[in-house]
User: Fold this.
Amino acid sequence: MAAHRARRGPGAARGGGARGRVRAAPRPAAAGAGDGGRGDRGGVAARRAARRRPGRPARRDGGGAAPLRPTPPPTTPPAAAEPALVTAEPALVTAEPALVTAEPAAVAAAVPSGPAPVEVGAVLVECRNVARYFGGVRALEDVSLTVREGEIVGLVGPNGSGKTTLVSLLSGSLRPTRGSIHVAGNDLAGLPPHRVAHAGVARTYQIPRPFTSMTVRDNVAMAIMFGRSPRSLSTARRDAAGPLDVVGLGHLAGAYPDKLNLHQRQLLEIARALAADPKVLLLDEALAGLNPAEIDNAVEVIRRVHRSGVSIVIVEHLLRVVNQLATRIVVLDRGTRLADGDPREVLTDPAVVRAYLGKRAHA
Ligand SMILES: Nc1ncnc2c1ncn2[C@@H]1O[C@H](COP(=O)(O)OP(=O)(O)O)[C@@H](O)[C@H]1O
Ligand SMILES: [Mg+2]
Assistant:
């Protein structure tokens, strides 16, 4: 992990291996149901539904345990003030339309910035030639992906391109139709989701579903109690402070989830995932529906998680965010990998611009 955190000097070469190249893949012959069906889960309607129904018990990967690595205290407070504990949701709705646009001009504006290069380490996740079908729908076809220590991989692509399906495969909540997935050397074939969590993968869901009858602290404690090193309720409650501090929700530990706004619920979702002490955190549209100030805060939280030694795969349609965070970008298009490489090169790759960036993104 030390190498993971070490930053290379400005003159150091970026890339090497996959990071340095853009690999354009041929278009698929057919990719199934396209943009419809569950591909709309990340859309505005789904986010509104999430606000209307703030809590249902989540389908989880099994949670996890083991104390979180020591992390610095949060430097940025959450967007909503503590005393009020009121949601600011109506305002968020008005912020959304502008945020879901990924026009070429916005892309070009996003390209020059970007994260400082990081030292990448050992392979944590290796996904080889994976396909996943849902009946006749080819959600993914022949997709390969590696995630190394120290990386933040931005996973982007149009609505219905297979991003959530890939996240579900990597977290063990779905099985591939073909291909293999290894996490830290463990073959995920045959492993139930909670064992995948023990292997070091945690995920968040597009729609946060905390346990509404439990406090914020107990939502995290639950994930700790049933994790890889089970602990008593009192110990788990104490240890919940670690993940809650990382995401900046420590001051709301005693509140119930219905008092949290969307941003805070998404932060809670991240805290629950961190309770499993993952090596790799998969964030599926964790910033969907946030206003600009909340997005900035979420970016800081994600950086803090990364600095604590966790590699990240972030599914995000806001290219400004992906470009700020990602050390590498993978583009999916209709179930296949269209490009994989350095963010600057990928975002200016003509095949990517043609297939994805020139359209409006509603992933
Ligand atoms: N459980 C499912 N049953 C049937 N089709 C599904 C299911 N999950 C995803 N799909 C289909 O797979 C494709 C990829 O979906 P998804 O991975 O959700 O895309 P994305 O996250 O990129 O929007 C879409 O055509 C979607 O309709
Ligand atoms: Mg999705």
Q: What stands out?
A: The chain is about 35% helix and 15% strand. Strands lie at 123-134, 137-148, 152-156, 178-183, 186-187, 201-203, 280-284, 311-315, 328-333, 336-341. The chain has one domain: 35-357. Confidence is low (pLDDT under 50) at residues 1-112.
